């Protein structure tokens, strides 16, 4: 039998207030080991979808009003964000959301807070983070607020990795970064995926998203209007016209 999806939404509907439906009746899966991208223009519902998976939708005044969310076959609809982190569903916040007045190392320690790690395990994970991100090792005692935009995005990813995630939720990992840094971040995400972590990525930059992803879904006003393998979508005239600059 095929194993259950790492993450699955069925009939998912997310609403803000009494009338704004941000996501409507959406079916989506992240299979084990996959990188899945969500494309779509401003206001399409991408961030709301990510919040529904992370459990953060309520803290933004929204609600899941229909459908179910499963993690490896178990329903997590309505479970708290903390419980989801303990299960391995971990959001990488946008880079600018690191704790600027705390050091790099303190930011990383916070990433593991849900796991109640012993000192030895904490050190193992910090060492692993500094191995993957040498630039963070060089700056472990510096305030995170003094890092460059690219370094802050790396710190956000490294912090999420401290929780030893099963699946990462990424919101616009390339936003505001120079092309060279976007390449570096992409390479790190690829290496993390190769080591076994599945990913759901919201990304305005369709070039970046379709390079990284195995599959993608295109959202428009809260509904999935197209989905498929990234290679097929890259070759699709519709996608090229709408998202890849029409070349
Ligand atoms: P963007 O890339 O601009 O963030 P998006 O595809 O991520 O767009 P969402 O941010 O999920 O889309 O927004 C989907 C719809 O939900 C929009 O109509 C938006 O105005 C509305 N919305 C999003 N967040 C909230 C909120 N906190 N309160 C009320 N309405 C919201």
Descriptive tags:
247 residues, alpha/beta, six-stranded mixed beta sheet, four-stranded antiparallel beta sheet, 10 helices, binds adenosine-5'-triphosphate
Short description:
It is built from ten helices and ten strands. With 247 residues, the chain is of the alpha/beta class. Strands 6-7-8-3-9-10 form a six-stranded mixed sheet, with helices on both faces.
Overall pLDDT: 93
State which percent range the strand residues make up: 25-35%
The H-and-E topology, N to C, reads as: EEEHEEHEHHHHEHEHEEHH
Number of helices: 10
Secondary structure tally: strands: 10
Strand order of the largest sheet: 6-7-8-3-9-10
Which molecules are bound besides the chains? adenosine-5'-triphosphate
Which class best fits the helix and strand makeup?
A: alpha/beta
Family: Belongs to the ABC transporter superfamily.
GO molecular function, one term: ATP binding
Protein name: ABC transporter ATP-binding protein
Pfam families: ABC_tran
